UniProtKB/TrEMBL annotation:
MF GO annotations: transmembrane transporter activity
Alphabetical list of InterPro entries matching this protein: ABC_BtuC-like, ABC_transptr_permease_BtuC
Protein's recorded name: Transport system permease protein
Keyword Thylakoid in record: no
Compartment(s) where it occurs, according to its Swiss-Prot or TrEMBL record: Cell membrane
Organism (species): Rhodopseudomonas palustris (strain HaA2)
PANTHER family xrefs: ABC TRANSPORTER PERMEASE PROTEIN MJ0876-RELATED, FERRIC ENTEROBACTIN TRANSPORT SYSTEM PERMEASE PROTEIN
Record-stated family: Belongs to the binding-protein-dependent transport system permease family. FecCD subfamily.
Membrane topology: Multi-pass membrane protein
Length: 341
């Protein structure tokens, strides 16, 4: 009789494997580009033993891009797992409460007004500020102790308003070059990012991730139902507030640096759930690692796909993510149909 590994051991093994994958993809990200570098050349450049040109390419151009891909993919995957645990809905994603759309609007407004370009500190500041404004409006409209349905409806309204406001800003912009810059920025990219963007976005991403991870025990209790979770001492209203704030903080900082990168938060938890199981507490770290791996892989892919112009990473994630989302909807429909039958 063979013994199956217990869920904790299986989760640890999957997490270790994902860490290795993320490390290899990060190494590959540092070596891929117009100037291809071998893994040994990348390592030499990182520790300061390579040539001066190789050190500049790796340390100043590609390293910030790889760090942002890892951090942004990680917070998107973690936020997706946290929201799916909060709502107990496998179709939940970070865009549900309007924070990414609001962050994009804040950054777009700054570009349209001519106050900054895509490499300015003002962009992340405006994006994070608007993400928090969206959370404040959400909680004001729905209330601190609102039901999940009210929160979702308010989030959809905010997200639609932010999208419409972004389109209006582009429509009213008198500078065609600014409109073009906005359009390309909205597609989502990690190109031309520097350590300035890392230094500004990373603290918000880390704090947001810490808030979400701190609620892992509450997610496990919530999987038994809200009434059961409350009987176990979980303050469900406080949990919602922390998860929404953590998502706004982390995803707002990420979006304002990279532009809109969709579907990572939706796809990542589904990739690891068959391996980890349905325990939302054990799902958080593997989902973050899967999100980081997905974005690193997508960012590598946009650099090696032959094209006359640069492909934006947000475009690639959407091309992959939309069919996956439709598949999830069809699967849920079949499950509901089977339940009714």
């Amino acid at each position: 009789m063979t013994m199956r590994p217990n869920p904790a051991s299986r989760a640890a093994a999957v997490t270790a494997a994902l860490m290795i994958v993320v490390g290899l993809l990060a190494l590959g990200s540092l070596g891929v580009g117009p100037v291809k570098l071998s893994p040994l050349a990348v390592i030499d450049a990182l520790i300061g033993r390579g040539g001066e040109v190789q050190q500049i390419i790796v340390q100043q151009i590609r390293l910030p891009r790889a760090i942002l891909a890892l951090a942004i993919g990680g917070i998107l995957g973690l936020s997706g797992a946290a929201l799916q645990g909060l709502l107990r809905n496998p179709l939940a994603s970070p865009s549900l409460f309007g924070a990414p759309q609001s962050a994009a609007f804040g950054a777009v407004l700054i570009i349209a007004l001519g106050w900054a370009d895509v490499r300015s500190y003002a962009l992340p500041v405006a994006g994070i500020t608007m993400a928090f404004v969206s959370v404040f409006v959400l909680l004001t409209v729905a209330g601190r102790s609102a039901s999940l349905l009210l929160l979702i409806l308010a989030g959809l309204a905010i997200s639609s308003l932010a999208g419409a406001a972004t389109a209006l800003v582009m429509n009213l912009s008198n500078n065609p070059f600014a409109s073009l810059e906005i359009a390309f920025w909205l597609l989502g990219s990690l190109e031309d990012r520097s350590f300035r963007h890392v230094a500004l976005a990373l603290p918000f991403i880390v704090v947001g991730a810490a808030l979400l991870f701190s609620q892992r025990a509450a997610f496990r209790a919530l999987s038994l139902g809200e009434e059961t979770a409350q009987s176990l001492g979980v303050d469900v209203a406080r949990l919602r507030l922390i998860v929404i704030a953590g998502t706004a903080l982390g995803v707002g900082g990420a979006v304002s640096v990279s532009g809109t990168i969709g579907f990572i938060g939706l796809v990542a938890p589904h990739l690891v759930r068959p391996l980890i199981g349905h325990d939302p507490a054990r799902l958080l770290i593997p989902s973050a690692l899967a999100g980081a791996a997905l974005l690193l892989a997508a960012d590598i892919a946009v650099r090696i796909i032959p094209s006359t112009t640069d492909i934006k990473v947000g475009v690639l994630t959407s091309i992959i993510g939309v069919p996956f989302f439709l598949y999830l909807i069809m699967r849920e429909r079949r499950a509901l149909g089977g339940g009714v039958a």
